[in-house]
């Protein structure tokens, strides 16, 4: 499943494909920190629930 996160620095949309964890249909693994694809600012993934892309 794909999720979208806003950059805390520039507000750009960043998309990540979540990896399903175990047998749970509603549990996904996303990187805990990531660099924005627009400004390269360091961001941290917020706690779920996340916005689906």
From TrEMBL:
This is Uncharacterized protein.
